[in-house]
Amino acid sequence: MKLKNLSLVGLIALSLNSSVFAKVSTTDVSPTSSPISQDEQAQIVAKIRQRLSELSTTSAADTKSIIERAKLSYFIGQYSSKEDDKLKSFRAGLDSLEAAATEGKDPDAVLIWAANAGGVASIERNLDALKLMDKIEKRLLTLSENFASYESGAAYRALAAIYFNAPSFISVGSGKKAAVYAAKAYALDPNSPANMLMMARVEADQGNKTKAVELFREVLQRAKPDRYPLDYAAWHNEAITGLEDAGAATT
Questions:
Q1: Rounded CA gap, 175 and 160, in Å?
Q2: What is the C-alpha to C-alpha distance for residues 199 and 183, in angstroms, rounded to an integer?
Q3: Using one digit for the tens of pLDDT, what is the confidence trace for 40-79?
Q4: What global pTM score does this model have?
Q5: First-residue to last-residue Cα distance in the chain
Q6: What CA–CA distance (Å, rounded) separates 117 from 54?
Q7: Which residues, in sequence order, are CB contacts of 220 under 8 Å at separation 6+?
Q8: Between the CA of residue 25 and those of 40, 114, 231, 233, what are the distances in Å?
Q9: What is the CATH number of domain 8-245?
Q10: SS3 annotation, 163-215
């Protein structure tokens, strides 16, 4: 099974300026019109691991702490250069939030579970991964009904991501559905870099090069490390790739 690069958290846009994320500083990594390098991403991973170590003494029964650790686990998976490390981190985040995501009362728990589950599916690419994609879709659809505006339309955005990335002939993939849900998220908050990025990917896929390039460039302008200390590198690199694929300048 072939899946495109499934970057759910990069499109979910967590509140990185509050709680645990304000304590993970990446402001020493300067924004650029070039891709964020593996070395720079390794610096981010090191800071995340440090924060996870600080959280290790927190009671496992504390739902807030479980969610925080699962978020950080995802970002380790997102930025790690080793596939085994990626899968281990994604799996840890998925497993730790299974109960809370099943309950569905905390939108953060469902979103972070979905992000980690998407990471697992994108690596394993087997029958179990297909079943997991179906499960992600169902939980996100329920979330979109109950918490539509949460985090600038995160449920819509995440649905757009899985519809965009998954293969349509054997999974939930659908370019048409991706466009619908990307537009819903973008309508809720057109200033969100995550919404811009998802919309840009859809526009590019539909052949709307001019609009896609405009949005990718806007993402580069808005995705700064001081405002989005963990998401910015993923957004930045996806925008650079989008511009290069469109044959457009990155400056």
A1: 9
A2: 7
A3: 888 888 999 988 888 877 666 678 889 999 999 999 998 9
A4: 0.85
A5: 36
A6: 25
A7: 33, 236, 239, 240, 243, 250
A8: 13, 25, 12, 13
A9: 1.25.40.10
A10: HHHCCCCCCCCCHHHHHHHHHHHHHHCCCCHHHHHHHHHHHHHCCCHHHHHHH
